[in-house]
Design a protein that fits this description.
alpha+beta
Amino acid sequence: MTSSKALKTAAYNREFDKMKDELLPSNCVRCGGWVDRHNGTLHHRLSRGKGGLNTRENLAPVTHECHDYIEKHPAESYKNGWSIPKYKKG
């Protein structure tokens, strides 16, 4: 029997792949370089762990190198809008 967690993971992966089809290829939000499925990914501006969703507003195309940089430099990432620390209450 398939667990609930496994079903949620599969649904998440399908949703993320659909967004990759919609948003890639494109230019990296950090370096401006070309991003496709082979040399990059979509970065969750608000991390999944903080409730970030697979939405056009929350996903940003980045090269693998820039994704690593963004993850390792949160203060700069927040300042430049590559990441957001939490949802703004409006």
